[in-house]
Design goal:
Elements lengths: L7 E5 L4 H12 L3 E6 L2 H11 L2 E4 L5 H15 L4 E4 L12 H29 L2 E6 L12 H24 L3 E8 L18 H13 L4 E4 L3 H8 L7
Helix pairs in contact: 1-6, 3-4, 4-5
């Protein structure tokens, strides 16, 4: 299939942080981009700068998010790469329900909703590349942010399932899970963060993982050591 689709990418969560930094890298390489986020004012400014297409999306409304992604795929004539970088998280040791609900709705239900749309598109085309952002937090339950850690474990396992589905179908569809540690964005709420990466550095390593069609990648790479240790510690509690 010879067309522009393999060099067309959609980034959900492109208005700031890792999503914006990755969009800038792909735009510099000449990719045709569809940018999606809730903050349409910021998104429109970035799209104009990158000659990209902007479309609003809110993962807190899974049904509407599915429709929004499907509409953008149709508008672009398809895409060869979809990056799911949107998410939310709260420190919530008090277990207030509103932040727990929002985290689960966006990071689990919303994520699965748009991942399913993207994967169905790739299965119909017979190829493609899906990238999802989980977190090192997926490896261990957290009393400070229980819903966030659980939601990122969901993201990781869901992506594993989609990768297995592509393998069972015998199709060249790559599914890449990115597990960042601390990145200097609005999402970083830790009291004493360490090994903090800039969004640009994180995007550079994500870009490298996309190019090699990696299944899993820690960002930055040194967080792989933390991952190794966390997997071997007793469960909390």
């Amino acid at each position: 299939m010879i067309d522009i689709v393999p060099r067309t990418a959609i980034i959900i969560g492109a208005s700031s942080g890792i999503g914006e930094a990755l969009a800038r890298r792909l735009a510099a390489e000449g990719w045709r981009l569809g940018l999606m986020a809730r903050r349409l004012d910021r998104l429109n400014a970035l799209a104009a700068e990158m000659n990209a297409v902007a479309a609003p999306i809110d993962l807190d409304d899974a049904a509407a998010a599915r429709q929004a992604l499907a509409a953008l795929l149709d508008r672009l004539g398809g895409a060869g790469l979809v990056v799911l970088s949107a998410g939310t998280g709260h420190l919530n040791p008090a277990l207030d329900w509103a932040p727990e609900r929002e985290t689960i709705a966006v990071n689990a239900l919303g994520f699965a909703a748009v991942a399913q749309v993207a994967m169905t598109h790739f299965l119909a085309r017979g190829s493609g590349h899906l990238v999802g952002i989980s977190s090192v937090a997926k490896l261990r339950g957290s009393g400070g942010a229980p819903a966030y850690a659980a939601s990122k474990a969901f993201v990781s396992t869901y992506l594993d399932g989609l990768r297995d589905l592509a393998k069972r179908r015998g199709l060249p569809i790559a599914v890449t899970e990115i597990a960042p540690g601390f990145v200097d964005t609005a999402m970083m709420k830790a009291d004493r963060p360490f090994w903090v990466a800039t969004p640009a550095k994180a995007a550079a390593q994500i870009h490298a993982a996309i190019r090699r069609r990696a299944r899993h990648a820690y960002v930055t790479r040194r967080w792989g050591l933390i991952g190794f240790l966390l997997r071997r510690l007793p469960a909390p509690g």
